[in-house]
Amino acid sequence: MSSFSTTTTRAACGCSSSTSRPSCCSLVQTRKIAPLPIVLVGEAYWRHAVDFEFLVSEGMIGARDRKLFRYAESAREAWSAIRRRYRRAGEPVFPGPGREARVRKPS
Question: What is the residue extent of each domain of the chain?
Answer without folding.
Answer: 13-89
